[in-house]
Design a protein that fits this description.
- The chain is α/β, with parallel strands linked by helices.
- It contains 8 helices and 16 strands.
- InterPro entries: Rhodanese-like_dom, Rhodanese-like_dom_sf, TrhO, TRHO_N.
- Its EC number is 1.14.-.-.
- It holds the Pfam family UPF0176_N.
- Keywords: Oxidoreductase, tRNA processing.
């Protein structure tokens, strides 16, 4: 679905592409005490310009992904950057052949990325950013411990060579994992990465607060690495899970082979689809044993409605 992805600064001009929809992923940590009062105005500007997606706003800033026409996205970004808190907002762009979202949601949150630790502020302390071109040298250094800050369903389909996988179910589990792994102090350097960068903002800030001195994180995340680093030089193995209809991307941000189980939201490989426990929209090899027959019957009814909507040329809101 996506032709390209790039990090865009406020003054950068938008290039032209064949795909009709522009997708903008953004986050910005900033003190934003008026976030609750801002929700309706932000929802209105998105609705006015036909922009869809999800934006999370909290006292610590904004995070989310939106899609629409080039003009619509430009209008929303201009509106955001007109706010003093978001004047320096940056975003990443990709293109989509179809609208990847069903609706527009602006949600109020306690955190724009949920770690659950009070007083972690990436504006005050954060790790050192490392450009993708310099990442291989850092993580190949025997004095570096490499940590994947993503969750288990993400790491299951792809990971950097030699990375430590915390196997967390949610990002909230990450702080306890760090505290319970005293071996992380055995080497002087800690390198961390995530999909697009936002989790590492908090993760590296947390590590610094825990007394780790040399803490680094991949600027732009895995996505920027896969875009910029040639496959023949890459230390990435597998695919990168993404939170949209593509499910995964590989080197050069080409769409991966994975699909999504709509019962448990786990990514599925081509081999998973051959399992006798796989039934589209109902169950997969990961969740079959965790669901009752009553659950599966409910999912079958939902899947039937999805298929009927497809035949009508519509999108089912529950899909």
């Amino acid at each position: 679905m996506t032709d390209t992805l790039k990090t865009t600064c406020p003054e950068a001009a938008a290039p032209e592409y064949d795909s009709p929809f522009l997708v903008a992923a953004l986050y910005h940590f900033v003190s934003f005490p008026r976030f609750a009062d801002f929700r309706l105005a932000l929802q209105a500007i998105c609705d006015e310009h036909g922009v869809k997606g999800t934006l999370l706003i909290a006292h610590e800033g904004i995070n989310g992904t939106i899609a629409g026409t080039d003009a619509g996205i430009a209008a929303v970004l201009s509106f955001l950057r007109a706010q003093p808190e978001f004047a320096r907002l940056e975003h990443k762009e990709s293109r989509a052949s179809t609208m990847p979202f069903l609706r527009m949601k602006v949600r109020l949150k306690k955190e724009i990325v949920t770690m659950g630790v009070e007083d972690i502020d990436p504006n005050k302390v954060v790790g050192t950013y490392v450009d993708p071109k310099d990442w291989n040298a850092l993580i190949s250094d025997p004095e570096t411990i490499l940590i994947d800050t993503r969750n288990d369903y993400e790491t299951a389909i792809g990971i950097f060579q030699g990375a430590v996988d915390p196997q967390t179910k949610t990002f909230r589990e990450f702080p306890d994992w760090v505290k319970n792994n005293t071996g992380l102090h055995n080497k002087p350097k800690i390198a961390m990465y995530c999909t697009g960068g936002i989790r590492c903002e908090k993760a590296t800030a947390f590590m610094k607060e825990q007394g780790f001195d040399e803490v680094y994180h991949l600027k732009g995340g895995i996505l920027k690495y896969l875009e910029q680093v040639p496959e023949e030089e890459s230390l990435w193995e597998g695919a990168c899970f993404v939170f949209d209809d593509r499910v995964s991307v590989t080197h050069g941000l080409k769409e991966g082979e994975h699909t999504l189980c709509h019962a448990c939201r786990q990514p599925l490989t081509l081999e998973d689809l051959k399992s006798p426990h796989h039934e589209e929209g109902v169950a997969c090899v990961h969740c079959y044993e965790e669901r009752t027959e009553e659950d599966r019957q409910r999912y079958r009814q939902r899947q039937q409605q999805i298929e009927l909507a497809k035949k009508r040329g519509e999108k089912h809101l529950g899909s």
